Amino acid sequence: MLSISNIGKTYPNGTVALQGITLEIGAGEIVAVVGGSGCGKSTLLRLLSGLDHPTHGTIDVDGTRIVAPHPAVGIVFQEPRLLPWLTVERNVGFGLEHLPRAERRGRVQEVLARVGLAEYGPRWPRELSGGQSQRVSIARALVTRPSVLLLDEPFSALDAFTRVELQDHLLEIWADTRPTLVLVTHDIEEAVALASRVVVLRPFPGRIAHVTDVRLARPRDRLSHAFDDAKRAILSALDTTLSRGAPQHDAPRELARA
Amino acid sequence: MPADGSLALVARTPAEPLRRPSRGAGTYVSGFAGLLLPIVLGIGWELAVHFGLANGRLVPPPSAIFATLYDLAVTGELYVHIQATLLRVLAGFITGTIAGTLVGALVGYLDLARRLLDPSLQGLRAVPSIAWVPLFILWFGIFEASKVTLIAVGVFFPIYLGVLGAIQSVDRKIVEVGRAFRLSPLGLVRRILLPSILPAYVVALRGGLGLGWMFVVAAEFMGASEGLGYLLVDGQQLGKPQQIVAAILTFAVIGKITDWLLSSLTAPFLRWQDSFSNTR
Predict the structure, then answer these.
(1) B166 and B78, same structural domain?
(2) Are residues B164 and B214 both part of a single domain?
């Protein structure tokens, strides 16, 4: 259970990135956060991970207040961020240094097999493709068995085929142990394919504009009408946030100047 | 037909990389190609002097140089000089490396230290290190201490700059991975910062060692009774160019060997690098 209670983030330069965000995310839920650029969705994820601190408000995971990175919360970044000087298996085992070697090995092997890279343990990160690297990065986050996994646009740098493949893969992994997933994305199809709830943020300052439940049975058929309808619903919610956003007049003014 | 030979050697290389560990064979071939020019020039000069086209008094032919080297070697004199020089470089290199690493790490890691120390150090760096010689002689005397200090100063700056630059260019995103896994400050240094600065550090060490060899000559010019630099001065004063060239050759060989040692000792730690040299 992840409770976000009235958090706000103001940067030292005065920019209000987030304001009044309150959200309850149940255990095992998949929540997608979507919004235009600059709406603070990545900031929100950084706050949840404990890498950054909210200016006010609180975040609790299973009753524990998050003030710094917490073992129950794993994070997958937009880029794989593998450590190039460690082999794949040592990258995955990075957060398990405190465990005895044999146990660490076993858990790394298990999770590598889970992401379909069982044979890749001794490889170097430079030998992996983009999709494989991101799988390793997911494995690294999963190996500590977090109850909440945060994903910051994890598939945005991948090609369309690999992206769909990894989305399906993420769902399989989720089905295993059912961690809570919070996924930041700008891809509405991705949000609808994965999430049980989609949170639409509105920029300037970042706040929640809309929350939509996605009531589609899993596995979801991306070609079905119901899927299209869900996409359309979120798209229209997103549209209202964009057209009512503060910088709406910027574009024409810019054109006029040019 | 040296030209034909070189063509044949070059032509073989493109086929070679098909086998995976092609590096051994590749260096072997290019090593030979690199030797070609000095060998051809040497033989040419030797023949020119031999047939009286040039007198070779100021520019000694290879045979005279090797004869000098041989004489120095059989009397054991060469080893005394090599040892003296090598020990000076080693002592200066180690001192300069330790100081450069510590100060570089401090200045790179702590913002306050950077603001306090870096401007002064950059100022000192602008002083040609040879300019310190008179002062060092006054302070440390004419013997080993002043020589080692001069070499250490020469080694210090490239290593200081290398460590400083490496720390400042550590990828913030990778540091964040360490934070996400709740590493302690010490763990962050050991598991993230040190490995990520290692490649730049090795480059800095090699640069430092090169300067160490440069400064040992300057140090030995300021009065030494042994060492390869002494051989240079001695050769000049007694009008023995072959001894000067012999000493220069020895410098080249030993400098190259120490550099090779350094890079091969550190190579196992850098196997992970996704660099041009690893993709070939």
Answers:
(1) yes
(2) yes
Chain segment B246-274, per-residue pLDDT in tens: 999 999 999 999 999 998 998 888 888 76
Could you tell me whether strands A207-213 and A197-202 are parallel, antiparallel, or unpaired per DSSP bridges? antiparallel
* A84 contacts in chain B (CB < 8 Å): 272-274
Beta bridge partners of A180: A148
Q: Is B60 a member of any domain? A: no
Strand order in the sheet with A2-10: A16-25, A2-10, A56-61, A64-65
Nearest CB neighbour to A124, from listed B177, B179, B272: B272
The structural domain count of chain B equals 2
Whether the CB of A132 is below 8 Å from some CB of chain B: the reply is: no
Residue A83 touches chain B, beta carbons under 8 Å:
yes
Q: What is the CATH number of the domain that holds A133?
A: 3.40.50.300
Is B190 an 8 Å CB contact of chain A?
no
CB pairs under 8 A between A and B: 48
Answer yes or no: do B50 and B76 share one domain: no
Looking at the 3D structure of chain A, how many domains does it have?
1
ipTM value: 0.84
Q: Minimal Cα–Cα distance from A44 to chain B, Å?
A: 15
Indicate the pairing of strand A16-25 with strand A64-65: unpaired
DSSP structure string for A85-121:
TS-HHHHHGGGGTTS-HHHHHHHHHHHHHHTT-GGGT
Look up the domain containing B173 and give its range: 65-279
Give the pLDDT confidence of B99-157 residue by residue, as tens digits: 999 999 999 888 899 999 999 999 999 888 788 888 998 999 888 899 999 999 999 99
Tell me, yes or no, whether B95 and B194 share the same domain: yes
Nearest to A233 by CA among A204, A203, A206, A211: A211
Residue among A69, A163, A219 at smallest CA distance from B184: A69
Determine the residue type at B16: E
Are B91 and B197 in a shared domain? yes
Distance to chain B for A68, nearest Cα, Å: 8
Q: Helices B194-221 and B228-237: crossing angle, nearest 10°?
A: 30
In angstroms, how far is CA A167 from the centroid of its own chain? 12
Taking CA–CA distances from A78, the nearest residue in chain B reads B173
Mean pLDDT score of chain B, rounded to an integer?
Answer: 85
Range of the domain at A147: 2-257
Q: With contacts defined as CB-CB under 8 Å, which chain B residues touch A94?
A: 177, 181, 191
